[in-house]
Structure prediction request, 118 residues.
Amino acid sequence: MANQNAVTLHPYFRPHSGKFDEFLSNLSHFVKKTRTEEGCLFYGFTKSDEIIFCREGYRDAEAALAHLENVGEALGEVLKMAEFERLEIHGPANELAKMRDPLSHLPIDWFILCSDEV
Prediction:
């Protein structure tokens, strides 16, 4: 079975009008920075029409928080050219609990793993 402590982040971005290509060209910076993260399970971007989605998974809450610290400055830069549509964080309750306080300033939809209950 997969790592039951794994946490996935699901950020959705909508580039501003005329900024789509510029936004896309900046994504390689995130990929390069993330390659150095030991706790990253997978990382990459997908797109659907005008929405860019980052597919990312981490070993646990600590690894996810380390990632956010690692890319924080770069994220601030790309948010000058895009709207943060939404952010979902998925994982087991005990891991999500570790993230709630440090990320309390963000509008997050929290999804608690329920596979043990079904």
Observations:
- DSSP finds three helices and five strands in the chain.
- The mean pLDDT is 93.
- The first helix runs from residue 20 to 34.
- The longest strand covers residues 82-91.
